[in-house]
Amino acid sequence: MSDFSFKPTGSIFKEREALLEEWTPDELVGRDEELRQYHAALQPVIEGETPSNIFLYGKSGVGKTAATRFLLQLLERDAGKVDGLDLHTVEINCDGLNSSYQTAVALVNELRDPTNQISNTGYPQASVYQFLFDELDTLGGTVLIVLDEVDHIRDDSLLYKLPRARSNGDVTAARLGVIGISNDLDFRNQLSSKVRSSLCEKEVSFSAYDANELCEVLRQREAVAFENDVLDTGVIEMCAAYGAKDSGDARQALDLLLESGDIARETNTELVTEAHVREARERLQTDQVVEGISNYSMHGQLVLWALTILEEQGQTPARTRDVRDPYEMLCEREGNDPVSDRAVREYLAELETLGIISSTQVNRGKGGGKYKQHELDQSVSSVKAGLSELLDTAA
Ligand SMILES: Nc1ncnc2c1ncn2[C@@H]1O[C@H](COP(=O)(O)OP(=O)(O)OP(=O)(O)O)[C@@H](O)[C@H]1O
Q1: Which residues of the chain, if any, have pLDDT below 50?
Q2: Ligand 1: which of 217, 249, 255 to mutate, most ligand atoms within 8 Å of CB?
Q3: Structural domain that includes position 229
Q4: Which of 75, 159, 294, 392 is most exposed by smallest CB count within 10 Å?
């Protein structure tokens, strides 16, 4: 039997935690323009004026939360040096809080003592708002309320009320500012104009990271997380290049570097190489695809499987109608009636949104309109791993 005893290797990581999501860097690299605009939007606070309401938007993993924590920490530090400026910040994540009511309850509980919390049901909405305004008045001074992932709140009653609480006389003893953060780029446009005009008084848009910016983020973590000279030449650049190509998301680039280090450690090597990065990417993609596909409908999976067969046979990019034959063959094998051409097109569009396939429009030539071609955007082995349950049934 193999030797399963545990021995620390200690040769790759100095502080592996520095690559985990919870770790906050002391300094934010690669976000100078965004930080400059955000800093300017927060300036009224240090002047002792009423804060602007600020709205931050940008895709996932582009540093919106990290920038907020970084600047608010500095603001709190510097506000402490200004006579008469009493600054409080409250941050909640609205993921899981679907309504204004639930968000107001969460804010009340965040502001209240743990022994004096209110429950999530049973109060009229007006009473919950009153509890919240009372808590804000008790705090007094300047209060910045951060609503991260604000797009989860489905109705806009609180987003209307909160920025106006001072001017409407609901809160009299505190100056209020709301910072809304969202990675849903449509959220802002769907807000009613009265909410948008107050919630989005100042806006800061965070662009996706390019490869150079991701290199900066990764180098900063390398210094903390890894032992000296453990990363082979090109490893950081490769993680950054994949990160920029996939999504421009720092979280994904950091995950890739972490997984590469883990693979090096698993294989008892003392150097993290580009080969480890390639393997790590394959693993992470597989995890992502498995997660994306596992709850996907049966016919969606069959359409994907059909395209995978074409890809394995070197017949991609494939037109929608080319997918039909293998799809029907699979339906027959699985004992399912095939869905319409239109439904197949919709499944393909959905798979594209999930990032599992990519599609391109092709011109038919003079006056001939356009058609779509599809191919896998992930490796065949990742997709097969995602489809494994279906493939197992078929085997
Ligand atoms: N400029 C940066 N420098 C260092 N680390 C960064 C930077 N930008 C992002 N990160 C790190 O990347 C991860 C994701 O960043 P963050 O949570 O701020 O993204 P986000 O834009 O708020 O994403 P989401 O919308 O998904 O919440 C965090 O671990 C964060 O510390």
Answers
A1: none
A2: 217
A3: 210-294
A4: 392
